[in-house]
Amino acid sequence: MNVLSIVSEVFPLIKTGGLADVAGALPKALRPHGISVLTLVPGYPQVLERLPGRAEIGHIDDLLGHRAVVFRAEADGLDLLVLDVPELYQRAGGPYLDHHGRDHPDNWLRFAVLSLAGARIALGALPIGGADIVHVHDWQSALTPVYLRYAFRSALPVVCTIHNLAFQGQFSFDIAGLLQLPPAALGFDCLEYYGAVGYLKGGILCSDVVTTVSPTYAREILSPDLGMGLDGVLQERRSALYGIVNGIDSDIWNPASDPVIPKQYDARSLARRQDNRAAVLERFGLTDANGPLFAALTRLTWQKGADLFPEAAEEIMLHGGQLVICGQGDAEIEAALRQCAARHPDRVSVHIGFTEDLAHLIVSGCDVLIQPSRFEPCGLTQLYAMRYGAIPLVGRTGGLSETIIDANDAATARGVATGFQFHPVDAHSFREAVRRACEAFADHEAWASLQRQAMKADFSWDRSASQYAQLFEALHAAWKKSVDGV
Fold it and tell me: What is the bridge-based pairing of β-strands 196-198 and 241-243?
């Protein structure tokens, strides 16, 4: 079975968040199931730079007034197609934002072109042949099933995965006539959304199956509270909605073989983590206070609960601990965190920015990783943390509630706890959870037991890839049956 995956970012070529990690890991996990995945990604400068051996395999004309050259390449076990449209993708900044942190004003066009190209490639526009299944991710490729259904009248099976419903690709209805779609696609039953154009809404309605990245999040987004205005649309597709927990690439995220961290270790050699802990403190300019070392490795946004970090810092310091923060996001939150670090220079340190190497270092050396998300579709950072023996402290929502077993008395007594949960996500509950973690850290033998239990948790892609494979196989069988007229 051949799957065409259409994504706006993919690790290790370009990454802004967990979408890239999933897009980079799932194709490799599907291979043992007999499923070949070809990944289509825009030709950003960062992508082209990393693929010097790419080979041109064709071109596609009339992509909303643009012409694309398509390259094929391999990287890190991935089979890739690169859509090269220099005037759309080769520019300063990131995939979605310019170097000032503002949305590229033509994002509606950049990702409509990606989606239209994906639809044509899936239908055989290139010499490599077409696809058996199309897999689109988030709003950036959600127009692909719309083009397939409305522009090409194709019933080719499509799976649409929602990684974060908060980002929906909503644009002024002024662009509607520029998308080269028939009028029926622009109405309420497809793209029209409160007088605007909603890319993700169209993708949800036109795909055969909609998945999201945890069963809990699949339930949460059916409610007005977390449905982000699309709960009614999702209720309509409820029978086609599945929650599949993300996995992690256990080869890349493995403390026993990680080439980035100062000292490699496993659950039987936890004492070696102390060298990594010392390296984290040195990297953040802190002297060891001999208390628990907390860390935050996240986007600095309200969704992620980053506005609560100063409150958490106060509680951490009350118990002799320290806090390091790595991330970027809202300017006001960044400023508040810098002020917190300035008030407590020996206990709190903030790094605005993100690198993969620093992420590996932090999870290899911190004692507790805090993730107080107000909503979290799945979350990968807590999975990386457990793999490395850093104990997660998380808000009880979405995938965080499914992947962490709270260290309450019963779970601790049974030896199954893997972290700390709290609810509701507010300053009081957060501080209470920090206090619980600090008290647990004081018992070194019990803490080591908690670390070993967390490291035993299996969050590889094996089980999740099997679930995706079953979905793909069922869709492909049903499509073949309809095409063959059986």
Answer: unpaired
In tens, the pLDDT along 316-375 reads 999 999 999 999 999 999 999 999 999 999 999 999 998 999 999 999 999 999 999 999
Q: Tokens 């929906």 — which residue?
A: 168
Note every long-range contact of 478-485, with CB atoms under 8 Å and residues 24 or more positions apart, other chains counting. Answer: 478/157, 479/132, 479/155, 479/156, 479/157, 482/155, 483/155
Taking phi over 0 as left and psi of -120 to 50 as alpha, with beta for the rest, 361 belongs to: alpha
Give the tens place of pLDDT for each residue, 202-240: 999 999 999 999 999 999 999 999 999 999 999 999 999
Rounded-to-integer distance, Cα 211 and Cα 238, Å: 10
Nearest to 206 by CA among 115, 117, 129, 120: 115
Tokens of 82: 């690169």
> Helices (DSSP H) in 90-244: which residue ranges?
107-122, 143-146, 199-206, 215-220, 231-236
Q: Is the pLDDT of residue 486 over 80?
A: no
CB 269 within 8 A of CB 448: no
pLDDT at 233: 97
Average pLDDT of the segment spanning 177-204: 97
- Nearest residue to 111 (alpha-carbon basis) of 183, 170, 28, 27: 170
Residue 304 assigned to a binding site: no
DSSP string of 301-361, one letter each residue: STTTTGGGHHHHHHHHHHTT-EEEEEE-B-HHHHHHHHHHHHH-TTTEEEEES--HHHHHH
Please state whether beta strands 55-63 and 66-75 pair in parallel, antiparallel, or not at all (unpaired): antiparallel
Instruction: Name the residue with tokens 């309809």.
Output: 482
Class of domain 270-456: alpha beta
> How do the domains of the chain map onto residue ranges?
2-247+462-484, 270-456
- Write down the pLDDT at residue 169: 97
Q: What pTM value is reported for the model?
A: 0.92
Contact status, residue 386 vs residue 367, Cβ threshold 8 Å: no
Tokens linked to 381: 């950072």
State pLDDT tens for residues 64-75: 999 999 999 999
| 101: confidence class by pLDDT, cuts 50, 70, 90 | confident
Residue pair 293/281 in contact (Cβ under 8 Å)? The answer is yes
Which class in CATH covers the domain with range 2-247+462-484? alpha beta
pLDDT given at position 99:
84
Distance CA 486, CA 483 (A): 8
In this structure, what token pair is assigned to residue 215? 């069963």
User: Bridge-partner residues for 103, per DSSP?
Assistant: 97
Both tokens of residue 377?
């579709």
Same fold, 2-247+462-484 and 270-456: yes
